[in-house]
Design goal:
The structure is a single chain. This protein is α+β, with helices and mostly antiparallel strands. The chain contains 19 helices and 47 strands. The strands form 12 sheets. Strands 21, 22, 25, 26, 27, 28, 31, 32, 33 and 34 form a 10-stranded mixed β-sheet that branches. It has a 7-stranded antiparallel β-sheet with strand order 8-23-20-9-15-11-12. Helix 4 (475-488) runs parallel beside helix 6 (533-553), helix 5 packs antiparallel against helix 6 (533-553) and helix 18 packs across helix 19. The model is unreliable at 902-910 and 927-951 (pLDDT under 50).
Length: 951
């Protein structure tokens, strides 16, 4: 047997990026690798790990087929230890060795820190300029290594000898500060020089002390900014010099006069670096709460040039960057006057030709600069960020587009998922979802990035986690956030509605379905998508505590009734001023989530080898499902509140054990979609499930019509309104171009984009079949309206892709399976199944004849998209109804009406003629009160009108 290609350089835990991995927070890092190519019959039977520890090389041979997150085979690392690791894999023969990968442990024990938290005295207080803290160190020649370990109460920007230490922004980010404060480890060897070296760190308010949360609170975590910094320099002779923050440091005020995440930054550029004379003092801090990084930091990830500069109707200078994004404006000005003021305001949309700032609520989103008077100055903030597409600039004459660019920031996640198709609007919508995630995955998975909120709402990420894990490598990012969730969880198991919990109210700590269920759903999703069993082990106590709490508050019948619920949040039928007042009954939703979370705990226990827990929670889940069916489902399969979302939940979460009820529920869901005019009628809870429910119930074509609908409300309606991110509301911008007046609307909210997980899995056809994509499920459902679709994902085993294309009555399906995975393939239209190993595979099958199904009932008429389009156009033109949606509502009582009973003269080649269409439209004109007449009376009138139309 030929050997496989050399593996990729090993990856440590979930850390990504180029160069050495610094600051590992574990002393036994798990390893992962991929193999680009291998013979067809190759199956890994063993791997060998080579570990170089300061020139001492050890090798470990492990007989195993695993290649994802395998255990560390050597002795545990110690603080600061650097190791270089190579991997090779084998079956009958060994592969070549991988490229080496280097990693370095962080400061793993509290006693590793000589530094202490320090804060300025009589400087840097609330509403005072940002302080800069500094110290000097003498360094001999022959430096071989220098590391800066730092964190802050607030956010910090560090410079060594006047140069930024790295490209991270808003460090150390946002965690549940009382429980976990993250520090960063940075290689600064290249910035150190012989002689005197100066380390200066500027502190901003950030999440620690700024105005934060829509309750208007300030200094939630503390009212003093503080720094913890330890610079360690190693020379050729082994000497280690340490510059640690202590009360010998000094501080100064900077030109950052005010900084706030919501309101922006005010900077006086006339105030440059100056002498530092203010004292600092140490402040108490528990070093046990320090943790290293699990994922990448926040960085500048892109810059976007201005697309257009013009004057608004009121004479304001406006700028369009062409993309709703998160970051700030970088502005170049020339020939300025000292003290001149320039103001940059931000907004996501325009309204009546002016900056649309209403959705920002109280957030000022304004950066102000007082100029130094230099020949050329670059203006950009340091300690704030904005969600915007448009900017208004005041104070610059003759502003040119080449003088501006938008600086895009976000957690620097590795892109792992792509989709494309023959449908331009669908592709733009998918790109909008990507941009929405980029803007809201800013150290914490937030709801929105622009208004006075920007919080880690648990419900939003719960529904979006499957999409997120496909599009980007979120493993380290979400692992960190879940640790905060568990830390913020109450002793009785309640999960706060936002994590980190800055709201801290009784209402936002009450158990809420779909929001609290993030405790079970997100860990399970990570396990399914990454193969990381460790996340289940770490979160299991949190998962179980949530379900145990629910068990303690439900009644003896196991129905979760009453209490505060968000319900199917932002269902388009909910009143604008009460987004929780959705059509779906909140008790139905709550009990369904209770059943689902209980089932996930049982399955997690089984994975973790906890048989007693697995049996207990599996039995409880069965009882809750039975209680759900008894309380909310009629014998005929109708579910209380008769909303799209309740059927989607019941179908996708196996809450209907009776096959007859299940079939009827699927049929009813399909009819609700028809009766809604093929417009979406779900909120946050139902949106990620409805297309799967329709597809699995045998109605993929209805799911496709929902997906590709452009009328409001729909996924593509915002695209037709020039959206470049996903909106919070289905109609955040009304058809007339005005902003939804609800007082709560965002133009960058990823939750409703959760449908693209179904697009990846069932439209393109690429889905995980086993944790970490160890098995792929390839099962595309090609929509009639698409000529091709492609999905590509970087799985833990390597790149997987599925692509199908229609041509000349044939469909060609191409797939790529990474080494270490297998694929279960189900060809479209029942053309066959296959199980294949790694490599590229292709099938070409005949497409079904393009014959329309017989139209025998009004339901059939609705299901024929082309015929329905013609019918609805005529009906609306004859004033039968003002819209397609109202027309389908009028048609609801007639879904089973037999069109085939019309006189034969009305038919043309078996299809209703224009006369039939007109006649049916006339019947629908009948007032609601008259629609209670007998079927015979209705049929008699229908035939009479049809005959008249024919004549």
């Amino acid at each position: 047997m030929a050997s496989p290609s050399a593996p990729s350089a090993p990856r440590f835990e979930h850390r990504t990026g180029f160069g050495p991995v610094l600051g590992l927070s574990t002393n036994r890092p798990r390893l992962s690798w991929t193999v680009a190519s291998a013979p067809d019959d190759y199956v890994q039977s063993a791997y060998e790990v080579e570990i170089d520890r300061a020139g001492v090389v050890q090798r470990f041979v492990v007989e195993s087929i695993e290649q994802v997150l395998v255990p560390w085979p050597g002795e545990p690392l110690i603080s600061r230890e650097s190791v270089t690791v190579r991997i090779r894999v084998g079956a009958a023969e060994w592969s070549d060795w991988s490229e080496p990968a280097t990693a370095e442990a962080g400061l793993l024990e509290p006693q590793d820190w000589r530094a202490r938290f320090i804060s300025p005295v009589n400087l840097g207080g609330l509403r005072q300029p940002a302080p800069a803290l500094r110290a000097d160190i003498e360094v001999p020649s022959g430096v071989v290594r220098a590391r800066l370990y730092a964190t802050a109460h607030g956010v910090y920007q560090a410079a060594l000898n006047g140069e930024p230490i790295d490209d991270a922004v808003l460090a150390p980010g946002w965690t549940s500060y009382e429980h976990r404060l993250r520090y960063r480890a940075v290689d600064v060897t290249h910035l150190v020089h012989p002689g005197s070296n100066t380390l200066e760190v500027t502190l901003g308010n950030g999440w620690w002390r700024g105005r934060f949360g829509f309750l208007g609170n300030r200094a939630i975590y503390g009212d003093r900014l503080a720094l913890l910094a330890q610079l360690e320099i190693t020379t050729e002779d082994g000497q280690v010099l340490i510059l640690a923050s202590d009360d010998a440091w000094v501080a100064r005020a900077t030109g950052i006069l005010a900084d706030d995440i919501y309101d922006g930054q005010t900077t006086d550029l006339r105030i440059g670096p100056g002498p530092s004379s203010a004292q600092v003092e140490t402040v108490p801090f528990d070093l046990e709460t320090l943790v290293g990084e699990d994922g990448p930091p926040m960085r500048i990830t892109e810059t976007i040039p201005a697309q257009r500069v013009w004057s608004s109707p009121s004479g304001k200078t406006l700028v369009d960057f062409g993309q709703n994004l998160v970051g700030w404006v970088r502005l170049r000005v020339r020939g300025t006057t000292a003290g001149a003021e320039i103001i940059v305001r931000h907004a996501e949309v325009l309204e009546h030709g002016e900056l649309g700032t209403g959705p920002l609520r109280s957030a000022r989103a304004t950066d102000t600069y007082l100029l130094a008077g230099s020949a050329e100055e670059i203006l950009e903030p340091t300690f704030t960020f904005h969600g915007f597409r448009f900017a208004e600039v005041t104070g610059v004459d003759d502003l040119r587009s080449e003088d501006l660019e938008a600086v895009v920031i976000g957690t620097d996640l590795r892109r792992t998922g792509w989709f494309s198709s023959s449908h331009d609007l669908l592709d733009r919508f998918h790109e909008n979802v990507v941009w929405g995630m980029r803007g809201n995955f800013l150290d914490v998975p937030t709801d929105c990035p622009q208004r006075d909120e920007r919080l880690g709402w648990t419900g939003d990420i719960q529904v979006f986690a499957p999409t997120a894990t496909y599009l980007f490598d979120t493993a380290g990012f979400l692992t960190s956030w879940l640790t905060d969730l568990a830390a913020e969880q109450a002793d009785d198991g309640r999960v706060p509605h936002v994590v980190p919990d800055v709201l801290r109210t009784a209402l936002t700590s009450a158990p809420a379905a779909a929001w609290g269920d993030a405790a079970t759903v997100v860990p399970w999703t990570l396990w399914q998508r990454t193969g990381d069993k460790g996340v289940l082990a770490r979160q299991f106590a949190s998962m179980r505590a949530w379900v145990d709490h629910l068990l303690s508050i439900v009644g003896p019948d196991l129905i979760w009734r009453g209490g505060f619920q968000y319900g199917d949040w932002l269902d388009p039928t909910a009143p604008a001023d009460d987004s929780a007042l959705a059509k779906a009954d909140p008790d139905v939703l709550a009990t369904a989530h209770f059943a689902q979370s209980t089932s996930l705990v049982a399955r997690a226990a089984e994975v973790l080898g906890r048989p007693d827990d697995a049996r207990h929670y599996a039995a409880l889940a069965t009882r809750v499902r039975q209680a759900f069916a008894e309380a909310f489902v009629t014998p005929s399969g109708r579910i209380i509140s008769d909303a799209q979302t309740v059927y989607a939940l019941a179908l996708q979460w196996d809450l209907l054990e009776n096959p007859t009820q299940r079939e009827a529920a699927g049929a009813r869901l399909a009819d609700l979609v028809r009766n809604g005019g093929f417009r979406i009628a779900t909120g946050f809870v139902g949106t990620p499930l409805i297309c799967d429910a329709l597809t699995d119930a045998g109605h993929p074509e209805l799911a496709h019509r929902l997906l590709l609908q452009t009328g409001a409300p729909s996924w593509l309606y915002p695209v037709t309104m020039d959206a470049t991110t996903v909106w919070e509301r289905w109609d955040s911008l009304l058809p007339d171009g005005t902003i939804n007046p609800s007082g709560m609307t965002s133009f960058n909210h990823y939750a409703l984009g959760s449908v693209v997980d179904w697009v990846h899995r069932r439209v393109a056809g690429l889905a995980p079949g086993a944790p970490g994509y160890r098995t792929l499920v390839v099962r595309p459902e090609p929509p009639a309206a698409l000529d091709y679709a492609t999905a590509r994902h970087l799985t833990p085993y390597g790149e997987a892709s599925v692509s199908w294309r229609k041509s000349d009555g044939m469909l060609t399906l191409d797939i790529q399976v990474p080494v270490g995975s297998r694929a279960m393939v189900e060809l479209p239209w029942g053309a066959g199944t296959a199980e294949v190993g790694h490599g590229r595979h292709s099938w070409t099958i005949a497409m079904p004849p393009a014959e329309r199904a017989p139209v025998t009932t009004v339901r059939d008429l609705l299901d024929d998209s082309e015929l329905w389009r013609r019918f609805s156009e005529v009906a609306i033109s004859r004033d039968v109804a003002p819209s397609e949606v109202r027309l389908t509502q009028l048609l609801e009582p007639y879904l089973d009406h037999p069109i085939s009973e019309l006189p034969s003269g009305v038919w043309t080649k078996g299809w209703p003629s224009e006369a039939t269409t007109v006649a049916l439209a006339d019947v629908l004109r009948t007032p609601d009160a008259d629609r209670r007449r007998t079927d015979a009376e209705q049929e008699e009138e229908l035939m009479s009108k049809t005959e008249a139309a024919v004549v």
